[in-house]
Structures are given as C-alpha cells and as structure tokens.
Amino acid sequence: MRSLARLCLFLLTCATPAAVAAQTNTAPPAAPKPAASKSAAATQTRTTTKMTTDPALLRPATLTAKAPDVYEVKFTTTKGDIVIQVTRSWAPIGADRFYNLVKHGFYNNAAFFRIVPGFIVQFGLSGDPAVNRAWKNANIKDDPVTQSNKPGTLTFATAGPNTRTTQLFINLGNNGPLDGQGFAPFAQVTTGMDVVQKLYSGYGERPDQGSITNEGKPYLDKNFPNIDRIQSAAITAPATTHTGAPSSAAPKH
After folding, report:
1. HEC states along 29-93?
2. pLDDT tens digits for range 105-136
3. Most buried by CB count within 10 Å: which residue of 53, 104, 135, 204?
4. Can you name the residues that pair with 191 across neighbouring β-strands?
5. Count of alpha carbons within 13 Å of 27, Cβ hemisphere only?
6. CATH of domain 64-237
C-alpha cells in the first residue's frame, strides 16, 4: 500500500483498485510490469519527430486565454486519432489551462507514460526539459467537481489541493471514488476510446517521472522504445490558426 507522503500518481487506499490520482516531479516507487518482448519491439514502429518548442511555453504566466464554451481537440498518436470534446462549464479553470497548452503545442511528442489497465492512462510531461521546468510550479486553483470520473473523461492530475499544472489522465473505468477527492473532469473522449485502450501498457508504472521531467524525450526513447505518444495535438473546433510552431517573435513577458 502506498502512503500519501510518497506522492505517487495513484495512492492505493483500503486495498481497493481505486486510487487518488496525483502528479509529482519526483520518481514514483517502482511497480514493475513485464517489459516488451523483443518480438513486440520488432513489430512496433516508431516515427522520430524533431522537437520544436513554441517560445511562449517558457512563459506560463502569459498563457491565460479564455477557452471557448465548447471546443474540440484532436490527438494524433502513434496508435491513431483521439478526439476530445471540452465543455468549459464542467471545470472552467482546467478547460482554460488545457486550451492554452494545446494551442501552443505543449502536448506535441508527449508520452503516455503511465498506464494502469482498467483504471487510467496518464500523460502531460513535455519532451522538452526546459518546458517542464517552466511549468513545474505553474499551479492553477481547483475547480468544483461537476461531472463524474466516468470512462473516457479527461481530468487533471494533482499532488494536493490547488496543484494542477499540465499532467492529465483519461479514465478507463468508472472511477467515481475520485469525484469526492476533488478530481474534476473537464472533457470527454468522443472518438478514439478504442485507440486509448490499445496504447502500450507493458511498461506499467516503470517510466520515472523525475527522469522524464529532467531529461525529456531522449530518456523515454532510450529506455522505453515501445511507449506510445501524442505526435501532435490541435484544436479543431472552433477553428484556430495557431499551429504551436515556434515563432520568430520574442516571448511575451
């Protein structure tokens, strides 16, 4: 049983499969699961994508645009497309944060680094260590919980009250116990839950959050070659002209 002091993503309580979702920039305790076999590694193809960073991502305090009441985001992943509909009224603060992160390309090349089958898929650390450092303490306040953590809902991870930054999880099961612990869903997967279910889970909880934070994509490429990623994330409705590509302009202050 994991204790709250260890600040793992999921802190098991009462010996049940339900858990508290939390984020941390320190390494979680290992819970090894079988790594990919050589045959699996041989059959899974990965496309190497050059890392590019929007300079605005290094200035979190400037990314405070209000999101549309309803908007749609498409994740193009290494397993296929996932479409998410965000309803701002469900959790306005979280919806605004997600909107700004997607708009400026934060989730491009982000890995699905922790998967607990039947429970959650977690992601939300950048492949660029400089970006992770910039967002480490860019906390937002909690939203009231207005929706349940049902399958396909998207929710921010947390390390305690008012500590949401960039990490998210997609609920794979009916995780209603999280509702009473303050985890506020703000979006729903509308297309591609079959893709979510196919994301590679063989590494379990082995990828180290501290190493991802400090070393970024090279750490994952070297140690977890079968891990699935978001190749690109884009706001598809309402339409946006921002691509998340680097700009020649200096970052705003």
Report:
1. CCCCCCCCCHHHHHHCCCCCCCCCCCHHHHCHHHCCCCCCCEEEEEEEECCEEEEEEEEHHHCHH
2. 999 999 999 999 999 999 999 999 999 999 99
3. 104
4. 83
5. 9
6. 2.40.100.10
Outline where the chain has alpha helix (H).
38-43, 92-103, 129-135, 193-198, 209-215, 217-223
Helix, strand, coil share (%) of the chain residues, nearest 5: 25, 20, 55
Q: Which two tokens stand for residue 112?
A: 């699905």
Task: Collapse the DSSP code of 103 into the 3-class scheme (helix H, G, I; strand E, B; otherwise coil) and give the result.
Answer: helix
Collapsed DSSP state (helix, strand, coil) of residue 169: strand
Asked whether the whole model's pTM tops 0.70, one would answer yes
pLDDT 10s digits, 32-51: 232 233 333 333 444 444 55
The Cα 196–Cα 82 span in angstroms is 7
